[in-house]
Every structure is written in structure tokens, then in C-alpha cells.
Specification:
Layout (H helix, E strand, L loop, with lengths): L17 E2 L2 H11 L9 H6 L13 H7 L1 H4 L11 E10 L8 E14 L2 E11 L5 E11 L2 H5 L2
Antiparallel strand pairs: 1-3, 2-5, 3-4, 4-5
């Protein structure tokens, strides 16, 4: 059964603040193989105009994906997570995330459409720091494959 388009525009409560740590940034940069010194060396980051080390551009994915669990687990929406695949990811930055930020994510459903029997959801995460400054918008596409497609595998 297709997802109800009346959920478009639904916004979920902001997540608890996540404190961005230097070590988490360093670990993430190492995991993705990015040796940019602005991710590990405070002086290098300061020479670029940042107050401390900054996070790689994809770092907020983990925050927005965790926040999107509110959508995925919403019993009223009725999404079958066993059929969900991550279709696309985009980020629109106001500034980089940096060590010391306390970031919260507010998730909204921007679109729901049916495509060849699959449900396609566009989920937007607005990431703000503790002062309310916008850091980044995460735009994630989730695809819930059609039930008969999953059963026929």
C-alpha cells in the first residue's frame, strides 16, 4: 500500500544536541581517506579562517540519518524499513561543522511519491548549532521497494 502523501510537510522534534569532537572528526576523515589538514590540525583550520578543526562535508550524514529514524519508525507513516534503500544524499552548507559545535537536527518529510510501485521519500534535515545558527541542510532520498519486488528475490 503506498505511503500517505498527507505526511508531506510533517516535521519531527529536534534531536538532542550532538557535540562534535576533534577525535570524531579525525576518525571520520581517516575512515573516508581524506587527509585534509583542516580536519586534524587546528592551526591549519585557523589559517583558513575557522576557529577550530572542521568536519569533512559528509560528516553530518550520520546525524541526519540517525534523526531520520523518527520518520522510519513513525508507526502512523507505516514505512517497512526492511524494504528501504538509501537512494540519494545532498548537503547545502551555510558553514562547515566544527569541533565544539553542539548540533541538533530537525527532520521533515519534503516529498512522498510512488514510482513503479516503489515509495520514494525525500527527507530534509535542518542542522543547527546550539545558538540556532544554521550549519547545513541534509536532503536524503529513501526508497521503499515494492513488496512484490522484495518477495520475488
Amino acid at each position: 500500500m503506498p505511503l500517505d502523501p498527507s505526511f508531506i510537510g510533517r516535521t519531527y522534534p529536534p534531536t538532542a544536541p550532538y557535540e562534535v569532537g576533534r577525535e570524531k572528526i579525525r576518525e571520520f576523515a581517516a575512515a573516508i581517506g581524506d587527509a585534509n589538514p583542516a580536519y586534524t590540525d587546528a592551526e591549519a583550520a585557523k589559517s583558513l579562517g575557522h576557529p577550530d578543526v572542521i568536519a569533512p562535508p559528509t560528516f553530518p550524514f550520520m546525524l541526519s540519518f540517525q534523526a531520520a529514524a523518527q520518520v522510519v519508525n513513525d508507526p502512523e507513516l507505516g514505512l517497512d524499513y526492511s524494504r528501504v534503500v538509501h537512494g540519494d544524499q545532498k548537503f547545502v552548507y551555510s558553514r562547515p561543522a566544527r569541533a565544539g559545535d553542539r548540533l541538533s537536527v530537525t527532520i521533515s518529510i519534503d516529498a512522498i511519491k510512488s514510482l513503479a510501485g516503489n515509495d520514494v521519500l525525500t527527507v530534509r534535515g535542518e542542522v543547527h548549532d546550539a545558538s540556532g545558527e544554521h550549519v547545513v541542510t541534509s536532503i536524503m532520498t529513501l526508497v521503499a521497494r515494492a513488496a512484490d519486488e522484495v518477495e520475488g528475490e
